[in-house]
Amino acid sequence: MLIGLRMATILAALAILSVAAPAQAQIGLPGGAPSLPRLPLPDRLPVDPDRLQDRLRDRVDETLQAPSRVRGLIRQSGGALEADPLGWPVVRAEIVAVDPSPASRRIALDAGFTVLREDRLEGLDLAVVVLAPPRGLSLRRAVERLRDLDPDGAWEFNHVYSPAGTAEGATVAGAASPGPAQGGGVRVGLIDTGVDARHPALAGAAIRQQGFAGEARPGAHGTAVASLLAGRSDAFSGAAPGATLFVADVYGGSPSGGASTGVAQALAWMVRNDVPVVNVSLVGPRNTLVEAAVRRASARGVLIVAAAGNDGPAAPPLYPAGYPDVVGVVGVNARGRALPEAARGPQVDFSAPGADMAAAGAGQGYVSVRGASFAAPLVAGLLARQRGTGDAAVQALAARARDLGARGPDPVYGRGLVAADLRVPPAAVGARGRLSR
Question: Which domain holds residue 94?
Fold first, then answer.
C-alpha cells in the first residue's frame, strides 16, 4: 500500500539526502541535526520499487541517532528504560522475539534467556515473546548474541515511542471515562495517551478506551489529538465530528509506556474492532515488531496515518510514518508553508494544518497546538470519512489536495495540502497555553 504514492518522491528524497550533511548547519535545532552520509545516486532504478525504498531506508537508518529530546525520557524513567546502541529509549532488560519458531525459542532458552511473558496478537496472527537476558549480560550484547546464534530469527529491542511533541504546562486530571453513548457511523482509531472523554469538544463522539500499559489514563496529547479527529463544540470542529473513536492508551502513566509491544497490541485491538483508519501521532526508530504489526494490519484493511516528525528537514525518517504502508503527514502554518521543523522525504504523503490552530486542552478549555502530531489526525479524520477504503481513500483525498511546492508529489508537502478549512484559530475558542509538536 502507498508504494505508488511514494515513488514520485523517492528521487527528490535522494537529492535531499545527498546534501543533508551540509544542510545541518542551517537547521538551528538544539544539539544540531544528525549528520547523514552522502548516498550515491543509482545509475538506474531497480525494477521493484520495494527494493529501492528498502535500500534507502537501510542506508539512512545507519545514522539514525536518537535526538536529545527523547534521550531525556531515559533519565526521567527512574531506571525503567535504557538506551539502544543509537541512543533510542528501550524497556530495560527486555528483548522481543517476533513470531519465533520452536527452534528459535529453544536456542534462546539453551543460551540462558528466560521468558518474561508471551502474547498471541489475535487479529494480526502474530506471536510475541518477551525475554530477559542472562544475568551479567548487557542488553546490547544479549541482542547481538541472539542474532549471532539465530540469524534467521527476529530479535529486537522493546523500543519506546514518544508523542511527536511535548506538553507545555498542559495537563489533564482525573480518570478516563468510557465517553457518551452516541456517535456517528464513522469509525476511527487513536493510538496515543488516553483521552479526557468529558471534554466538551468530545461530547458528540462515542469513545471506547482500552489501556495497553495499565489502566487507560487521560493525557493532554491524546485529548488534543482526539478533538482534532472527532471533536465538535460551538466554534470548534475536528475532521470527523461525532465519529466513534477507539482510543488505545499505550502509556497509562507507566514509565515504560509507549513500548513497541503495546503499540503492536493496540493495532491488533483495532483490527479486532474493524476500525478502518487509525491515527498514530507517535515517533521512534525502525522496529521489527512494529513493522510486522503495521504490515499485517494494513493487509487486513487498516489504513494507518502517522505524524512524520518534527526534527527538521535533514532528519532521517521516523517511524511508523516511515513504513511504506503508512500515510505520513507534516504540518503547515496558517499561510500554508511547511513548518521549519517539519520532516521531509518520501515518507511525507500529505501536509495539513499543524500550527496557528486550537485543540482541546485541560478542563473545558482549549490550547494552541503546533507540530505534526496535530496535522495527522486531520488527515486521518478525512480518510475515515471517505466512501472508499485503503488506497482508494488515499487516492480520493489526493485528488482533493492543493498542490504546493514543486509540481506534483514532492518530499516537502507530499501529495499536497488538505484540511486547510479545518484550522480553528486559537482566538476563536479563547485558547490559552500551548501544546507543541
Answer: 81-159
**Residue 332 belongs to what H/E stretch?**
strand 326-332
- Residues 110 and 227 reside in one and the same domain: no
Same domain, 181 and 108: no
Strand partners, 360: 366
Return the axis-axis angle of helices 3-18 and 20-27, rounded to nearest 10°: 80
The torsion angles phi and psi of 108, rounded to 5 degrees, stand at -65, -45
In terms of domains, do 186 and 277 share one? Answer: yes
Which of 213, 249, 206, 253 shows the shortest CA–CA distance to 229? 206
Pair (245, 201) in one structural domain:
yes
Q: Where are the alpha helices (DSSP H) in 285-418?
A: 288-299, 372-385, 390-400
Task: Give residue-wise pLDDT tens across range 365-396.
Answer: 999 999 999 999 999 999 999 877 889 999 99
Confidence of residue 167 (pLDDT cuts 50, 70, 90): very low
How far is Cα 346 from Cα 198, in angstroms, rounded to an integer? 38
- Name the domain count of the chain: 2
As a whole number, the mean pLDDT across the chain is 86
| pLDDT tens digits for range 93-143 | 999 999 999 999 999 999 999 999 999 999 999 999 999 999 999 999 999
Single residue among 144, 159, 174 that ends a domain in this structure:
159
β-partners of residue 162 are: 283
Please give the DSSP secondary-structure letter assigned to residue 189.
Answer: E
- Pair 422, 378: CB distance under 8 Å: yes
Of 140, 82, 84, 148, whose CA–CA distance to 111 is shortest? 148
Q: Is the peptide bond before 317 cis (omega within 30 degrees of 0)?
A: no
**16, three cell numbers:** 535531499
The residue behind cell 476500525 is 275
Residue 196 lies in a domain: yes
Q: Which of 169, 155, 243 is nearest to 204 (CA)?
A: 243
Handedness of CA 74, 79, 80, 84 (dihedral sign): positive
- Other C-beta atoms lying within 10 Å of the C-beta of residue 189: 30
Strands (E), 134-293: 155-159, 162-163, 166-168, 187-192, 206-211, 232-233, 236-237, 244-249, 277-280, 282-283
Please state the pTM of the whole predicted model.
0.85
CATH of the domain at 249: 3.40.50.200
Backbone angles phi, psi at 416, to 5 degrees: 125, 180
Distance CA 294, CA 253 (A): 24
Q: Name the band, by pLDDT with cuts 50, 70 and 90, for residue 24.
A: very low
